[in-house]
Amino acid sequence: MVRCLWCRNTRVCLFYQSSHTTSQIMEVSMAQFNETTMAQVFFRNAEKYTDRPYASYKKDGVWLDITWKSMDTMVRKLAYYLMSIGIEKGDKVGLFSPNRWEWHLSALAINSIGAVDVPIYATNSSEESEYILNNSDSKICLVGTVDHLNTILRVRSKLPNIKQIIVFDETAGQDSFVITLSKALAEGEKSPNAELMKKRLTEIKPSDLSTIIYTSGTTGNPKGVMLTHNNFVSNVINVFKEMIDRKTGNDLLTTEDTFLSFLPLSHSLERTAGFYGALA
Question: What pTM was computed for the model?
Answer without folding.
Answer: 0.87
